Amino acid sequence: MQPGVVPPLLVVELLFRAKSDFTDLPHATTSVSQFLDSSVELPLHKACAFESLRLLDRIWTSSRAYKKNSVRDGASFSLGRCLGTDRYYRHHQFNRSLLEAVKRRHLAMVMWLSSKLKGYLIEGEVVTAAASVGAIEILDFFLCWGPDALEVAVLHGHSNVMWWLLQHTPDNGYDMDKALHYASEGHNIVHEVAAQGRLDVLKWMQKKRGVDLDAGSNGSHITDLGEASLAIHVAAVNGHLQAIQLRRLTEALGGSCTAAKVTIDTVVEAGKNGHADVVQWLLAEYPKLNFGDQQTPTDETPMDAIAARGHLNVLVVVQTMNVNADSRKRNRDGSRKGGHVCTSKAMDDAAANGHLDVVKWLHENRDEGCTSRAMDGAAIGGHLRVIQWLHENTSQGCTTGAMDGAAVYGYLDVVKWLHFTTNGDGRSGSKWTPSCRPMVA
């Protein structure tokens, strides 16, 4: 096909194929197609929004019909003509189109634009946009770098982009002060990478400790960046044990932070998320943490919160570590354990959430027991096996709320079991209180 000749629209081609009189008049098909096809006059950057390389090919091929100095004087204006002949317009469209492709993380489109519009500088705005969306594969393709890319990567929380930029283009004149300033304003890159468990980035930041980190007009970002203990908390909650250990060993990028922010709340939050290895390490590494010192207002003790979420392995760790800590404390000063580790709420909530293994473990390993809320909650949740186990192994029974709740939520098997297990006065031996209030059919 000749340069500048756009393939006819399929609908036009099919239409003329059925008309034998036009077989020897191919220009008729082309002319009708060009008349109907408005897509070739789309600005290139708007066409990128459709994410269609075929459409871009069509627009590009159409623009090739216009050659510099070959267009007749007085020819009508068209965007295709500008794209084909005006190098300033082409440069403008190149970067605007790249922005659209970068926003969509469309590497194939970026490569297409770079192959067609050669010789134009990729502006820093485009590189910055790639950093802001975390498009490392596109950054890898670019040959030109903007000095704002690093701080924008920090601003948008893309630690992987920050690490890539500094690894591949370390001499590009990045504004480290500006990047660290963003970190201090709620975009703390240490906390970000700790939450992701990115050991490579944490190690790089540790290595970079002596370079430029003491610079800056007010130095406020230095101490914020050095809050390694907060990074430990973030990593712990997300279960990244290796990241926690690294931050503990090099406890400050700023050199002055303490473990003040690593409290028992860190242990509780990690436990609630089921990270038994993290909980065990924290309790061993910070032996002075006391389960009675929770700073977050809550009516849950640590084991209450963990039991409600069914993390039996974490409960075992907490129980073991707490027993060992109590023993050491008694040997040292004869005092009893500090703070409440567990209450009856642990078994109540575990039963309500259907965690039978946790209920059994608490029954065998703790003395707090449960209340009637355990069976009531299990009934409301439809956990028949839990109800049956509680009936056989505890004496707290249930209230009228058990059958009421099971009925409201449609657990017929639970309603039947409660009905047939109790006798006429709502009791079965000494284990039951009245099981159901009169219901209206």
Key descriptive features of the protein:
about 450 residues; mainly alpha; Serine Threonine Protein Phosphatase 5, Tetratricopeptide repeat; disordered C terminus; 27 helices; Ankyrin_rpt; Ankyrin_rpt-contain_sf; SecEffector_AnkRepeat
Write the layout of secondary structure elements.
Layout: H1 10-17, H2 26-36, H3 44-48, H4 53-63, H5 79-85, H6 87-103, H7 107-116, H8 124-132, H9 136-141, H10 149-155, H11 159-168, H12 176-184, H13 189-196, H14 199-207, H15 220-225, H16 228-237, H17 241-249, H18 264-272, H19 276-285, H20 302-308, H21 312-333, H22 345-352, H23 356-365, H24 372-380, H25 384-393, H26 400-408, H27 412-421
Helix pairs in contact: 4-5, 5-6, 6-7, 6-8, 8-10, 10-11, 10-12, 13-16, 16-17, 16-18, 18-19, 18-20, 19-21, 20-22, 22-23, 22-24, 24-25, 24-26, 26-27
Pfam families: Ank_4 (PF13637)
InterPro entries: Ankyrin_rpt (IPR002110), Ankyrin_rpt-contain_sf (IPR036770), SecEffector_AnkRepeat (IPR052050)
Provide a descriptive summary of the structure in words:
The chain is an all-alpha fold. It has a domain at 371-441: Alpha Horseshoe (Serine Threonine Protein Phosphatase 5, Tetratricopeptide repeat), CATH 1.25.40. Helices cover 58% and strands 0% of the residues. The N and C termini lie far apart (80 Å).
